[in-house]
Specification:
Elements: E1 2-9, H1 13-20, H2 26-29, E2 33-40, E3 49-56, E4 59-71, E5 75-82, E6 85-96, E7 99-110, H3 113-121, H4 123-143
């Protein structure tokens, strides 16, 4: 399953990237994030591996992030794996004057029967979650104090 989301952020590209690229900011816009722990490789660079833990209601979700591409300020792509789920999350940032267009392309592959059923029966749920995080990042970024 593949889908694309897009949002306009009322900040220059350099500031958006500064906020997006700081792992300390993740808890500010990724609801449910309990921890982000760098495991191996050079932090933030291709090949770097980190562990993420989310609490979604009563469900604890553990996933691994592996950075695939880092060509900031234009692109940042990571692979996220969790039980039965593989997700490539490609983020593109286009400067438009003093605004930034954030385009996110997601690709999901599921191996578990339940997750495969969810991608078939409720594909909008995945896009809705992606947009929720993007809107939360926009609110955080636009409300963050200037550097």
């Amino acid at each position: 399953m593949e889908y694309t989301c897009e949002i306009e952020i009322d900040l220059p590209q350099a500031r958006v990237i500064e906020l997006f690229d700081d792992a300390d900011n993740l808890k500010e816009w990724q609801e449910g994030l309990v921890s982000f722990t760098h495991r191996s490789g050079e932090a933030g660079q291709p090949g770097a591996v980190s562990d993420l833990v989310f609490q979604m209601g009563k469900r604890k979700i553990e996933m691994v992030e592996t950075i695939e591409r880092r060509n900031l300020p234009e692109e940042f792509t990571a692979i996220f794996t969790a039980k039965g789920v593989w997700n490539r999350n490609a983020n593109f940032f286009e400067a438009r004057g003093d605004k930034t267009i954030w385009l996110q392309k997601n690709e999901f592959r599921c191996t578990g029967i339940m997750m495969r059923l969810m991608t078939v029966l409720m594909p909008g749920m995945f896009k809705k979650q992606s947009l929720k995080y993007m809107v939360a990042f926009k609110a955080f970024a636009e409300g963050a104090p200037p550097n």
